[in-house]
Specification:
With 478 residues, this protein is of the alpha+beta class. Among the domains are: 17-110; 259-478, no CATH class. It is 55% helix and 9% strand. The protein contains 19 helices and ten strands. Strands 1, 2, 3, 4 and 6 form a five-stranded antiparallel beta sheet that branches. It has a three-stranded mixed beta sheet with strand order 5-9-8, with helices on one face. A hairpin with a 3-residue loop joins strand 2 and strand 3. Helix 2 runs parallel beside helix 4 and helix 17 (393-411) packs antiparallel against helix 18. It is globular and about 65 Å long. The relative contact order is 0.10.
Length: 478
Amino acid sequence: MSIPDDPKRPSRPPTGRFGRLARLGALGTRAVPLAIAGVKKRLSGEIDEEEQQRQREKILKEAKKTAEAMLKTLGEMKGLPLKIGQMASYIDGLAPPGYEEKFQEVLKRLQAKAPPLSPEAAEKVIKSELGAPPEEIFAEFEREPFAAASIGQVHRARLRSGERVAVKVQYPGIDTAIENDLKTVAVMEQMIAPIGRRYQSKEGLEEIKRVFLAEIDYTQEAVATDAFRAFFADDPSIVIPRVVHSLTTKRVLVNEYIDGIDYHTFTQSAPWSQRHVATKTIWKFMFRSLYEYGTLYADPHPGNYRFIVSKDDDVKIGFLDFGCVRVLSDQMIAGMKRVILARMRRDDDEFSRALVEVYGFDPTDEEGWPLYKTYTEQLIRPLTDDEPFLHTKEVARENVAFIVRGERKIVWKKGEVLPNLPKPLKMPVENTFVNRLQWGLTSVLAGLEADYNFHRLTLPWILGARKPPPGLTVPDPV
């Protein structure tokens, strides 16, 4: 489905630092009244049922308006704000409590159908990068993109050989926009430095900067795509697009076009048997690449899957977008396996030692230690318990809510006006994007509503030695 033409479409996203900040500030003015209404809703106990219903309808209507405003603003801004909107669109627990369905219903359009730029802008980038306009390079080229996301938009095309391809074109100026977003976040980090030290926010920001700046170089994405094709060359259930390297540059990426059913259509229409197979396949893709090759696919959002169903109901999945990929150090992978194996064997002493030595948790921290230990147990349960596990929206929300509630109690003591400055954590920076995968994947699997014994599926990769990822460099520990 193509995105309808809009003669007013811009040729580039806004890139100025203060202009982008002002747009986000305008969103805040819409969100504050909604938050106040939510508080009133909780405090109002003396009104009749009819009045409560009127208030609920009014708040829900305002919630939808706020979500629509977010959709428009984040969609136009692209870059990091749009990425945050994508995360809120599918990770259960990130949208405002009580309004999740309204927000997710609207924001899920950001997953693949964010507002595109003008066709002329895309064609100008192609000519600049490849030396000729698209009609001279391709046998066919669709001017209207069929998908648009945070960093670029994607057009269908056909090579002279007849092969159908997807042409991803980077938004002009998106590199400047992302750099300015990161500068803004860095200033905010300085403002909350005393609290930020607990969460290593400065180090985490550097990790985010490193990964996101790499993401705007499509030649690096091409290398990562090739690596994942090599990882799963022996697994016909996982389809990775072939990159056309002769037509790929820093700002244009051409690869094999994968046709299939999108995530939302599949989850709503597929029978349990197909969803069960899909659950297994997505898990294999995420965790075999992580534990066997030490490579993290850190962008699990629903727009990155295409479900290919054959006439005999066989299900394959095409995986798209390898821009946000992180190769982890040998030390990090070994440490993660150590934590899982200790919990799997119910060796509490070794589990505690591993949490200290791998994740930097502090057993002398009377408030933080039980919080993080319990949270880790909860998060890795699908890996450690030898039984079928069903991911649900409730599980996904609780994963987020549990840690948020605990941190709030630590930082904001009851009855105190100023925040408490708790002991700093010493978690490895490499873990920054692992958390994004865990929260995101739980919500994706919850949508499939199919259980699986993930413990038995994952155990061989946990017990096996890490293999070098072909074409990728294994970093030293950060």
